[in-house]
Amino acid sequence: MLDGILDFTLGQALLASLLLTHVTIASVTIYLHRHQAHRALDLHPLASHFFRFWLWLTTGMRTKDWVAVHRKHHAKVETPEDPHSPQVYGIRKVLLEGAELYRAEADNDETLAKYGRGTPDDWIERRVYTPYDRYGIVLLFLIDLALFGIAGIAVWGIQMLWIPFFAAGVINGVGHYWGYRNYEVSDASRNIVPWGILIGGEELHNNHHTFASSARLSSKWWEFDIGWLYIRLMQAVGLARVRKVAPRPVRDPLKSSVDMDTVVAIVSNRFQIMSHYGRDVLTRVYRDEMRQRADRPPRRARRLLLRNESLIDERDRMQIDSILSASPHLQTVYRFKLALQELWSRSTSSNEHLLQSLQDWCHQAEASGIKALQDFARTLRSYSMKPAVV
To answer: Which parts of 195-310 fold into alpha helices (H)?
Structure first.
């Protein structure tokens, strides 16, 4: 029995371990994350319980624990109460000890009571998965040993390390430290492609923090969310039903006036619109201005101008002020950026006041004399919540 029931070669055993860990990461992203934590989709009871059983077998994680810790991460992101922020604990600790940080928070009864509501509480959860949460991985060890023989020890070891390293370490650590950002949200989340096959689409972490309740994590045409692919396949055979995805802006080229429909569309799609502003206005003006300057600011200067105000420290502020002081045009477009962000932060303002503020913003932008800003203001008028008129 040294070779196990399957009598696999070492290469075949390695391939099998990668396939098995892939099922585990699919279970995390589809069941724990998108279904349970954020209610972005509904799962057929058969699919839901398969994922729950598989996670008990391969990780020993309890649904309530994972969901509660993740919801608290979103609620307290980048603060001292965040269970696993590299901005608080440092990237080294989260990357190498992310599983320990998770377990410490999962032992917090207050966290479980406040953030773990709505998770499974049936007979099998109370009598098997919760009290015997470590028995699954012991059973898995015996199964791996029987199937793969001595190589099963390595297969089991890979399965045990996969989630702690990639999910607890890479996603929670690197996903808030390195990478690119499609959207300037108030936390430090990053997208860290190309890791889609390894971590199920969870590498699109900035997209997720922007649209937390979306079942689809990809935003750009070239981003690959393999978890979304699986959800669509499950939906096709009746095992899943998508409840929500990130909104997609609608533009009506025949619409030329700012009305309440425009306001609602802009507020609803504010993250995409600010992303467009950064690309079509700030970046465009920045590059035009830099071509005319003999002294070039640091490469990170443009990113500072795009960054969310809540993430700018005193050192960054000084650098931004230095860049803007040498360019009246950059000062103008940066000021308009802040004014546009301020518009949708006025949650207590009346609809009439928001409408007037947006109309004023567009009028002033078109009178600025800066072509990129004028073009954007005219584009802004075309946003709508209604299908475009053909």
So the answer is: 196-199, 205-210, 226-236, 260-268, 270-277, 283-291, 301-306
- pLDDT tier at 109, thresholds 50, 70, 90: very high
Are residues 23 and 71 located together in one domain of the fold?
yes
The pLDDT value given to residue 298: 67
**C-alpha Rg value of the chain to the nearest Å:** 24
Same domain, 208 and 344: no
Q: Where are the beta strands (DSSP E) in the chain?
A: 41-43, 240-242, 250-251, 383-384
201 and 82 share a domain?
yes
Same domain, 238 and 148: yes
Domain of 73, in residue numbers = 10-242
Higher pLDDT, residue 344 or 51: 51
Q: Which of 214, 242, 270 is the last residue of a domain?
A: 242
Question: Does any domain span residue 117?
Answer: yes
In a domain, 389, yes or no: no
Distances from the Cα of 217 to the Cα of 82, 93, 210, angstroms? 22, 26, 10
How far apart (Å, rounded) are the C-alpha atoms in residues 322 and 303? Answer: 14
- Looking at the fold, whether 299 and 226 belong to one and the same domain comes out as no
Query: Among 177, 210, 242, where does a domain finish?
Result: 242
pTM of the shown model: 0.92
283-294 pLDDT tens trace: 999 988 888 776
Cα–Cα distance, 255 to 388 (Å, whole number): 9
pLDDT tens sequence across 43-94 = 999 999 999 999 999 999 999 999 999 999 999 999 999 999 999 999 999 9
CA–CA gap between residue 88 and residue 152 (Å, rounded): 38
Q: Are residues 360 and 330 in the same domain?
A: yes
Segment 222-281, tens digit of pLDDT: 999 999 999 999 999 999 999 999 999 999 888 888 999 999 999 899 999 999 999 999
User: Cα–Cα distances in Å, from 70 out to 156, 168, 204?
Assistant: 26, 11, 16
pLDDT at site 291: 80
* Rounded-to-integer distance, Cα 347 and Cα 370, Å: 30
Same domain, 178 and 70: yes
d(CA 241, CA 247): 17
Q: Domain count of the chain? A: 2
Residue labelled with tokens 């949650």: 347
